[in-house]
What we know:
Blueprint: H1 2-28, H2 34-37, H3 41-51, H4 62-69, H5 72-83, H6 92-126, H7 128-134, H8 136-146, H9 149-154, H10 157-161, H11 166-175, H12 189-193, H13 199-219, H14 226-244, H15 251-265, H16 270-321
Amino acid sequence: MIIQSIALLDQLDKDINTFAMRVREWYGWHFPELKNLVKDNFVYARVSAYIQDKAKFTEDKIAGLTEVVEDEALAQQIYKAAKISMGMETSEQDMANIIIFTERMISLALYRKQLYSYLEDKMSTVAPNLSSLIGDTVAARLIQKAGSLTSLAKCPASTVQILGAEKALFRALKTKGNTPKYGIIYHSSFIGRASAKNKGRISRYLANKCSIAARIDSFIDEPTSAFGEQLRDQVEERLKFYDTGDIPRKNVDVMSAVASKLRKAGGKSDLEEGEEKKSKKEKKEKRSRDDEPAAAAVEPEKKKSKKDKEDSEEKKKKKDKK
């Protein structure tokens, strides 16, 4: 579901951008001044669908336009521009076709928002730690590229780092040039915030944390985002370390703290957990002690039989010599 959703989201983004340019160009023949007043494509489509024929746009419609653009001053500017517009006049049939297409584009944009909220919900269930670490979109793209969450969990950190940059990698290997430092994870905000000289270092560190988060998500019994949040904090600390030199916490300490907190939340204290481990260890040692006498009894027989064979072989050799 995640792979299909992120693929559809990417396709919708391309289509909506193409359709938005078409709406701007098509409606621009009728009302060219609107292009400079409204920059956002989605708002432009909504405004053009609301105004329709500029000749019929009266002062009593300004209140409705204010709700669309969420700015009263901008609504007044659009009204004034409509009155002195140099755009061509259009027939009712032509305007109807423009508005039908514009409304289709608006409905697509609204569906895109709905699909993204569905993807967020799905990611919080399937891969909450990975989503908390690098965001829903980048996490979904990593899962899409790997094929599944289990496949991503099996990938080493070095593979996660360059997922999505396969062409650049093989080209670099062929030409003996520099291999790429990052693939899909480049879209994470951490790499954007790092300085140019630290981009490679932080991408390697982030890939390591992504690998840990994917493995936790894949094999944990009860989904939780607690590990992902702490991993994100660790990446933040590493970024700070590159700038200021403050030593970050060790991964073992952070993961142990999260695990103990989750155990306490589940009703188990650290003492109980320790006792359980101790009892398991004792049982294992007892089992191994019980097995020792049997093993000791078998070993001399094996040794004896081996010695007998060697003696018999020596006797045969002596007879053959005689």
